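ping. complex inputs:
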Amino acid sequence: MGTVDNTPHFRRLALLWLIATLILTPIVIFVLGPGLPPGNGSMEAAGQTTDNIVLLALSVPVAMAVLITLAYEVWAFRERDPNGPVLDGPAITGNSSIQMWWLIITTSLVLFLAGFGSVRLLEDGSGGGQGPTPLTNPTGYKKALQVQVIAQQWQFTYRYPQYGGVESPKLVIPAHTLVEFHVTSLDVVHSFWAVQLAVKADANPGFDNVAYVNTQQPLTFNIHCAELCGVWHGYMFAEGKVVPKAAFTSWIANTQKTYGPATKSLPPYSKTYFPDPQGRGG
Amino acid sequence: MVKRSILALSAALLVCVAIAAYVVLYLTKVPDSARAAQTSAGTELYLATVPASEETDPHDSWVSYYQTNVHDTNWQHKTTYVLPAHSLIHVTVYQYDGDSGLRNPFISQATGTVGGTFQLNGKTTTAIDPDTASHIFAVPQLHLSVPLQGVDDDAKNQCGNAPCTLQNAHQTISFTFRTGARGLYRWQCFVPCAAGYIDGFGGPMQTVGYMDGFLKVV
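pong. complex structure:
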């Protein structure tokens, strides 16, 4: 039977946790935070970056509690002298105060995050697909530039209904503009992900999935399919461009001219398409 | 006891070696490639599309691309083509298959070719009737897409399995495009032309070596 260890471990742990949290939280917010994805490519992207900073900042105290406790225990309760006395801690008798605060803190954290996430989503959809009848429409959505994203195995093409329904293999949109994406598919389930714009919307056949984005400064962004869709899913990527408004006007006029022959063959603009023929499918 | 331990260890080692060999073989297995021909006219790539692969192929009913030559002989069942970087490539496709139609009529127009046009049986054109498309040769990374018109249903002397000859009913499509930087570019057909598969997009459309492959730009 060894002697009882009366070292104030809990106080030490609390102090270490407090110091680590006070040092690391500002570093996460002010140093790491601005570099978190998806960046500032659009208002939605900037919003998601803020959300990521909030999540990461709130996870710092939790992570520190776990990691410091683990490190402290490895250090404090190591066997210092193999031939020395075996020490034991004080008997565990329960602590209603700790239990109460544990419940209060964890419940508050979870409820805050749930509320924060819901409010952010209800603001403007946060760049996510909202289905054919969006729950939240951003200000000025009736004047938004509409762009239809048409997915098929294995590429995206883009149709501009306000410009004669012209279709293009390239996605070009104007800067400082609200864009309303209508995402659909001609075959299987895909997902349209414009990474730096923070837009991600599933592309389902026969379904119109609406997502909004407020573009900011001109930039080149990456487009990926984010839903496993067949053998070339990994190659279903491209680049899109946000360009100045004058450059967009020029580009769309040129596109209407270039793809005039193909536009004549297109079906009238529709939110969804049910292609016929289905090829030689059995 | 020692004997049993050695046996167990040997068995474990054997399994590990087998797994490692499988992974290495899987990762290093690259489909056979064919080099484009260098002629006085530049780099020339001759391809053929057929309604069914050769009878010795494991999937002899699958539609497929082949590499061939100017005389439409010496057929090779390869869909990875080695091309020089930043160069003009003259492509000729001997198209022996019937039409399937396009799921997206937009790709009935050629894009990414020099001049935005292609030659269909010697006639310069930009687009075809979407319903008459048999196949597409497309390299999405280069925004290259050329529709290949199908052979008429009532055409005489149609080809069945590869290889075919120029005496068989066919369309000749040619175009020129410029390669980009060195790298591996995938190409594919966009027509739902896989007979017997859901929406015509299984089998040869989902298996590298038939209706898709790579351009190995070196």
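The longest helix of chain B spans residues 2-28.
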